[in-house]
Specification:
The structure is a single chain. Helices cover 42% and strands 12% of the residues. With 130 residues, the protein is an alpha+beta fold. The chain has one domain. Helix 2 packs across helix 3. The radius of gyration is 16 Å and the shape is globular.
């Protein structure tokens, strides 16, 4: 029983560690800090987020690193949402629906987010699911 409990804790910590290294620990269920810049594609957002992560990679403090990454993205013209966005369920994400050319749009209430690339998420709107 003790081994099972330690294994479960290890999985939770491994998941948190992966999110921490990714620079976005809040994206596990809700994404209160979804960044968007209208008029670009997912491919461009991925490149911008990656560039900002590299720029702030040497900062040891997680809080400072996240703040510096947010400032970097703001300097590139990105905006933060003013409300949390829930993670999409499997029924929301259709295979082949998200491509590098997927446009980045301003989120609206009722939208959900999903991973689009290794570095960038994308919102899916309710009408896309229906």
């Amino acid at each position: 029983m003790k081994n099972i409990a330690l294994f479960s804790v290890g999985i939770i910590l491994a998941g948190f560690g992966a999110a921490w290294l990714n620079g976005s620990p809040t994206e596990s269920r809700e994404n209160p800090n979804y960044v968007y810049k209208e008029g670009i594609t997912l491919e461009q957002k991925d490149e911008d987020v990656f560039t900002c992560k590299v720029e702030v990679g040497g900062i040891l403090s997680q809080d400072l690193r996240l703040e510096a990454k947010d400032r970097c993205l703001k300097d590139k013209g990105y905006k933060l949402t003013s409300f949390p966005i829930p993670k999409c369920g499997p029924k929301h994400v259709q295979e082949g629906f998200i491509t590098p050319e997927t446009p980045i749009r301003k989120p609206a209430k009722g939208a959900c987010w999903t991973e689009g690339t290794k570095h960038a998420s994308v919102v899916i709107f309710p009408e896309a699911v229906e």
